[in-house]
Amino acid sequence: MTVINRKKRVTLAMVANYANVSKSAVSKVLLGGGGKTTKVGEKTAGRIRQAAKFLGFHPDWAARSLKTGKTNNIGLLWSLSYPHYATGIVRNFSSHLMGKGYSTTIIDSLSDLQIIKQALSGFISRKVDGLIFQAKGCAAHDPEIEDMLGRIENVVVVSDQDVFPAFSKIILDFDPAFKEILQLAEKCGRFNITALINDSEAFYREKFRKYSGNLKLQMSNENLNNYENPEVFAEKIVKQYPDTDLFFALSDLCAQAISSQIIENGREVPEDVGVIGFNDNPFGLVCRPPLASVKIDIDMIVDIALKIIFDNMKSETPHKRKYRIKAEFINRASSGLTEVR
Asked: Helices 42-55 & 12-19, crossing angle to 10 degrees?
């Protein structure tokens, strides 16, 4: 029976001895170190993690930082407001980084310039090993923000616009999805479209107008965040736009609230009014009718961003890269965009 002294700091060597593996293998699994030549199988990695948990191993990041010049911390600066694919982004980034022995400093930017600049100042002071930054709205064109990003290593910009040319970036391309929705709307005879896209999301408004063609397109500046609950919001929207054939909302929550309100008012979805959301939240599948939505591949954003950061960490001459991820229209019954009316 192994007796553990819980007051004594557990070292890599102790974990290696307990798991009957090399110290470099433990370093590879728990700290992301161990050198390029060290390879560890899944079964061995599992045994190492079990040993670390049993022994109570906790990395001494301060000592490691002094030794390597790295903080083993990656920053994530993202708006957690609508559209709510942000939740999945945060969860996936955190879990992936923990698996590589890194911690994550997450700051909700709220798409506010002052908060973004304060957060960037903090990331600069902490000397994070990398940063994933969502550039949207005014933040995507602010020269001070661009200058601050230049003082951080391994920055990946995620934006729906091709901005900040000095940095690696992932461009989220919503054109294909918006174009498909509006072309189908015209084909199916739904000519009165109301898009719930407020002024802070002006870029999305421009995209929608670009493909509106002969449709009558109305833009609502109403924001769910200004209401105590979705029901109050939906009641006002449905009353304000009574002639709408198709509602598009920048969140699935808004869209479902509107759908429920239309039905409560005695009309049918999608026979009388179509409804489309944004984010393709899993709950949309159990809505009645199932909720149509616009989907962006969250897993792909995470995989690409982390690949850029870790590839640049390994390289003596980091490279600037650009990727484009296309959004997809997930057409379900609530849209009514399946047949000519």
From this structure: 120
